[in-house]
Amino acid sequence: MRIPTLPPYLALLGHVIKWLLLATLVALLAGSASAAFIYGLDWATDTRNANRWLIWLLPVAGFVVGWVYLRWGESVAAGNNLLLDEIHDTRKVVPLRMAPLVLWGTITSHLFGASVGREGTAVQMGGSLADQLTGLFRLSGEDRRIILMAGISAGFASVFGTPLGAAVFALEVLATGRLRYEAILPCLVAAILADQVALWWGIQHDHYLIPEIPSMSLWGLTAMVLAGIIFGLTARLFAEATHSLTGLMRRKVSYSPLRPFIGGVVIAAAVFALGTDRYIGLGIPVIMEAFEQPLAPWDFAGKLMFTVVSLGSGFKGGEVTPLFYIGATLGNALAPILNMPFGLLAAVGFVAVFSGAANTPLASTLMAMELFGAEIGLFAGIACVVSYLFSGHTGIYSSQRLGHRKLGQLPEGLKLGEVADWRKRQGEQKKKDE
């Protein structure tokens, strides 16, 4: 006897209703977690600013964070890369402990002065909380991939207030040059609702004002290409320096809690030597300044170095807000050289360095339009794409896969963190063949 099946449109309607409900649950969880995180982050920043001496306790804080992760968090220490690996190759549900551990670890890092961001924390909380629905609703492997992506988009949207960019980020970040459209509905719904949930909790996102956005011209197009090249190379430098320091610390310091302790000593000493705390924490005030007035041309380099040491030594947080800082201040420094308005090039750099470092040009362009207005879309789009190309086959997420290579001969599906070893093996094989 033939078993009757639902008509195609009824099956499609059921699919849509299913993911609307699941995405709503993900949004409630991720948006609420991000709201708590942002409130905690604001408290940590205000407390540190009112008690500058806390920077001297950064080595101790780093040791404590490292010890807690060694004792209870080894299974989730990979952070965003764990989420990407689970989406590509589903194995087991991400432990729920990821959310409270990264929340506590990031707030602690900010309280005592590490230069880290907030995206990594929001994404990890969103992904881990969303994955708890896998067992509750007995989701299949494919559905689990989608709900993890929805969690990523919800976390990203609720912490930055950019739901369109966040939804595309979750689709785009998995593999370079490739989008996962099967998850577009849940990612978009989860991002929009999570942003609203955070707003309902009273969260206020940062607002950036650009005094002038000129009409596109031949020189404007040329300037965006030139700036995009510099932004992409800077993104590549940031990613490679962070991964190199992480690898060096792991090889030289076997006891993991000592790594952030050492990093904390270096950062605290640098703050004392420079006589400024301009390069620690999120750095939102400096980002705001980059849209309004000329800044010191070395600000981007200062933030880059402080962030590389913080993340490379093991402090918890994210890379994105420091990349916004680096991009905005670098754009500010390039503005007079390229004869472009400070605010415009700061805004373009804000998203373009992130585009190159995360290999997400479409998401970055949408973020620019959400943050700065649709008029910036042409400028940001050109710079983000060029930055993406010039950052090469590297990035801040070592578990990101090669979808379509940018240039040269590389196998699809290879992790970015494995590119260097693959090239080394190919070089050795070539020598043997010769």
TrEMBL record:
Q: Which CDD domains match?
A: ClC_sycA_like
One GO molecular function term of this record is:
chloride transmembrane transporter activity
The record's annotation in InterPro entries points to:
Cl-channel_core (IPR014743), ClC (IPR001807), ClC-type_chloride_channel (IPR050368)
> Gene3D superfamilies of this UniProt entry?
Clc chloride channel
Q: Which GO terms describe its cellular component?
A: membrane
Residues that span the membrane, as ranges: 20-41, 53-70, 146-171, 183-203, 218-239, 260-280, 300-325, 337-358, 378-397
Q: Which UniProt keywords apply?
A: Ion channel, Ion transport, Membrane, Transmembrane, Transmembrane helix, Transport
Q: What is this protein called?
A: H+/Cl-antiporter ClcA
Name the major location. Answer: membrane
What Pfam families does the annotation carry?
Answer: Voltage_CLC (PF00654)
Record's subcellular location: Membrane
- According to Swiss-Prot or TrEMBL, what is its membrane topology? Multi-pass membrane protein
